[in-house]
Amino acid sequence: MNSGLKTLAASLAVGAALSLGLGGAIAAETPKKGGVLKFVVPAEPPSFDGHRETTFALVHPIAPFYSLLVKQNPQNSMDPTDIICDLCTEMPKPTDGGKTYTFKLRKGVTFEDGAPLTAADVKATYDKIIFPPADISSARKAYFVMVESVETPDDETVVFKLKYPSSAFIPALAMPFNFIYDDAKLAQDMHWYEKNILGSGPFQKAERQAGAFIKGTANPNYYEKGKPYLDGFEAIFAKKESLRVQAIRGDRAAIEFRGFPPQSRDDLVKALGKDITVQESDWNCVLLITPNHRKKPFDDVRVRRALTLAVDRWGGSQYLSKIAIVKTVGGIVFPGHPLAANKEELQQLAGYWPDLAKSRAEAKRLLKEAGIPEGFKFVLNNRAVDQPYKIVGTWLIDQWKQIGLAVEQQVQPTGPFYDTLRKKQDFDVSIDFNCQSVVNPLLDVSKFISEDTSGSQYGGYTNREVDELFNAMNQTDDQAAQREKMRRMEKIVLDEEALGFITMWWYRIIPHRSYVKGWNVSPSHYLNQQLADVWLDQ
Amino acid sequence: MHQYIIKRILMMIPTLFGAAVLVFFLMRAIPGDVCELRLAGTGATFDPDALRICQQELGLNEPIFLQFFSWIGGFFVGDFGTSMWTNQPIVSEISLRFQVSMQIALMATLVSIVISIPMGIISAVKRNTWVDYCVRGFSIAGIAMPSFWLGILIILGLLVGSQALYGEPWMPPINYVPIWVDPAENLAMLIWPALATGYRYSAVATRMTRSAMLEVLREDYVRTARAKGLVESVIVNRHALKNALLPVVTVIGIEFAFLMGGLVVTEQVFNLNGLGKLFVESVSNHDYTMTQALVMLVALIFVLTNFVVDLFYAWLDPRIRYS
After folding, report:
1. Name one GO cellular component term (chain B) (predicted).
2. Given A47, A247, A420, which is nearest B87 (Cβ)?
3. SS (H, E, C) chain B
């Protein structure tokens, strides 16, 4: 083994050990105070209002300025079910048959301008998100369909009343976009937070240069005493991936929180050796294949089943993960979540069978039965983004070629791509994706419910059994019942009706400067971005 | 001359109006809109009401001609409006980027002039010698190499070279600091893109200088100057060069205008927060108002640069008379 490969292997081993939680000694290091964390962000946020936007480009530079009511545990970020208090003092146990959640708030929390943060601010925030006025855009209103009202019996108590018990409620509350805003500012102007930043988080806004950077300095009044460890942070906008990689190599930035492809990781490890640490995780984003049910022959379940049966997911995972940010084979639920299918359950589904030859023979038989001739041509609509869209698209073409289909890939920039899916609806088969923050399968699978209720299902189908299962899962907090219904829903979606298919789940690779400590990779690039626990070992 | 200047200024109005009509309708011919991109672009589920409210806020559901007249009316009274993507005033969004692009354009032009004019002259004077071949090879390489590619090589070269020499990789800063705040940091960032683009830009100007000089050196008045016994340096610098500069000035003028808005990829390679980068972002975000303002700005820069170049002709060549 040459020295470069040795360095690569050693660094990957260290990184993997850290990711798997084996780096106990390292994790136990005493945090040092001071320093400015510089990180690169691939895009600039459209506005500063988390309630309105949907992009990670908002979360990375803006989340450090805000507090949330509850959040995913930054110290146990690989467990998607570990949700802890941020502004509240204790995670509440639901009462009233699971329909009432009472949160007690921390005392003495203030906004950056010195105004005290009270229950009225939390109520105003969630009212804006859940019950926005007619002219206010709330991107995540649909995640709170179970909420009936938000009440404030006193300044330190917030009560959420639900229409029905729902396990999806707490994960929805923990979404990193739910920044707590100042009631007074919202009362003045509901659009105020689109252009201004005023929070109670670990950092305060210092400077912004449009298109270039956002800087924050430590909040001296932050309610977690002794934190943040950093003096400040600098989020630098850099669109080109190669530049972001070189910026880490040249130490112009210490980290990029979204994720790099495997090749960039290997390049950085080779160049920097022990100065780079790699953290990796399954990623709560998935590429889907959506056949257009409005168009022949994709309205025929036999054709759709043939398409999924042809795809070698187990083999593809092995090879594609070397060149693209996809890896894990899974069903409709994020792998690793208690509601997700295990390997044995997956192998019962079309397209996941362990015997590939049998699977492809069945695909050919179904195509023949449906009257599809050898060499049948169709177009795969795809997004003009390399990672992982075009790579997975090219791989799919080869998979379908194995059963005698001749597929052409049509790639479009993001705008026209979504226009095709949402308005034109004239595609044959399309790549689509679903990318979420907090792992909340009960709501995340809304992508597969009927067209008239989903809002983001582009296949154009209606299946009321799926809708009923979705509603039933969301209206119970019995996890065993949820799991059973989820399996049935998965069987219909991926196998019996082959309504839409999963390719592979994404894989998040974060190579960062080794002096960055206290930040743990999580299953989503939206999570764990308050930076209160991050410190620099310099 | 005054009449000519007024006529040229009046002719700018239909040119700019034509550009305005084209950019407005071409932008809307691209499928999709800014709201759809903003909400659906991350693949997450979103409320359909959010899409309707966003389109309403931005006036995207109004008749297209109403949108056009509202924009063009604002444009002619100097109101560029707000960016559809960031909701910030377009003037403030553009002003910082303009400063970066202007500095890069000036530095690249300077690099180009310093390289191209002496090399073009030497190449013409030493025609068909090894010096001429070297200059021509150097300039053809400059034309053949895209400046962004050269930029990537420069960054990689700096990283690898500095690591080999000093043990720590070094690359230029990726955050712009105005020259009056920190001149060293500013130049450490901008000198490299200026060299990369200036080299490419000099290649065109070198070849233009060479051919213009070759033509002028064959003129009768040059032969007369030689017959009078003037030394070669005076013939070349005083008599030939000034007359050969006319086409060179045109090339430099057009390239300068191009540099102001056309460094789309090079700006991204060096993370320059200039107009080119803003252009790409606004087009990919379907930010109609921003793209329209940028196209109009670049059109205005081109029109004004051509105008200045035309005026410069008169200074260089007294035979040119505008009436």
Report:
1. plasma membrane
2. A47
3. CHHHHHHHHHHHHHHHHHHHHHHHHHHHHCCCCHHHHHHHCCCCCCCHHHHHHHHHHCCCCCCHHHHHHHHHHHHHCCCCCECCCCCCEHHHHHHHHHHHHHHHHHHHHHHHHHHHHHHHHHHHHCCCCHHHHHHHHHHHHHHHCCHHHHHHHHHHHHHHHHHHHHCCCCCCCCCCCCCCCCHHHHHHHHHHHHHHHHHHHHHHHHHHHHHHHHHHHCCHHHHHHHHCCCCHHHHHHHHHHHHHHHHHHHHHHHHHHHHHHHCHHHHHHCCCCCHHHHHHHHHHCCCHHHHHHHHHHHHHHHHHHHHHHHHHHHHHCCCCCCC
